[in-house]
Amino acid sequence: MRLTVGRWWYVIGVIVIGGILAACGGNSPPAPTNLTAADSGRNVTLKVGQKLVLTLEGNPSTGYGWEVAQVDAAVLAPQGEPEYTAAANIPGSGGVFVFRFTAQAVGSTPLVLGYSRPFEPNTPPIEVFTVEITVE
Q1: Is residue 125 part of a domain?
Q2: Residue 9 included in any domain
Q3: Does the CA dihedral 2-7-8-13 come out positive or negative?
Q4: Is residue 19 part of a domain?
Q5: Sorting pLDDT into bands at 50, 70 and 90, what band is 95?
Q6: Does residue 107 belong to any structural domain of this protein?
Q7: β-strands 107-116, 65-70: how paired?
Q8: Which positions ≥6 away from 110 have C-beta within 8 Å?
Q9: Taking the CA of residue 116 as centre, how many other CA atoms within 13 Å lie in the half-sphere pointing to its CB?
Q10: I want to staple 116 with a disulfide (CB 3.0 to 4.6 A). Which of 53, 106, 125, 135 is the partner?
Q11: How many CA atoms within 13 Å lie on the side-chain side of 70?
Q12: What is the pLDDT of residue 29?
């Protein structure tokens, strides 16, 4: 069977479109990685584009709050401001701080957060959360 020039373009078009569809079909983003205080000290591996959700208990009514102390945003970028949700609708009750990050590029970075009072800048944090992030 001989293929004419028109049929060659048709065959090439089918192959190209098939390749594009195959590439799109199996590349769903990886599920987010969820961390808590129990994960402090771990090494965590993420894929580029993967989300990281960090949930830490705290009580801002005491003046304390969690703040990012160290991260290379070129590798692991914070996504917006942390969210605080109270555990109960009672004044002075504690709750959880939720931090969201996205793995931006291949590399590694420590992710360090401190639980401190911002109005006491010369006082070290009373708690520290640390993980080593590797992005592949």
Answers
A1: yes
A2: no
A3: negative
A4: no
A5: very high
A6: yes
A7: antiparallel
A8: 70, 71, 130, 131, 132, 133
A9: 16
A10: 125
A11: 11
A12: 74
Q: Strand pairing of 65-70 and 95-103?
A: unpaired
Range of the domain at 59: 29-135
Does the predicted model carry a pTM greater than 0.85? Answer: no
Alpha helices in 4-53 (DSSP H): 5-25
* CATH number reported for the structural domain that contains residue 60 in this entry: 2.60.40.2020
Work out how many domains the chain is built from and give that number: 1
- Tens digits of per-residue pLDDT, 2-51? 545 555 445 454 454 544 444 555 577 799 999 999 999 999 999 999 99
Q: Which two tokens stand for residue 82?
A: 């942390």
Cα distance between residue 134 and residue 45, in whole Å:
5
Complete edge-to-edge strand list for the sheet that includes strand 65-70? 43-46, 127-135, 107-116, 65-70
Residue matched to tokens 């990050």? 101
Question: Quick one: tokens of 41?
Answer: 């000290």
In the chain, the amino acid numbered 12 is I
Cα separation, 86 vs 5, in Å, equals 69
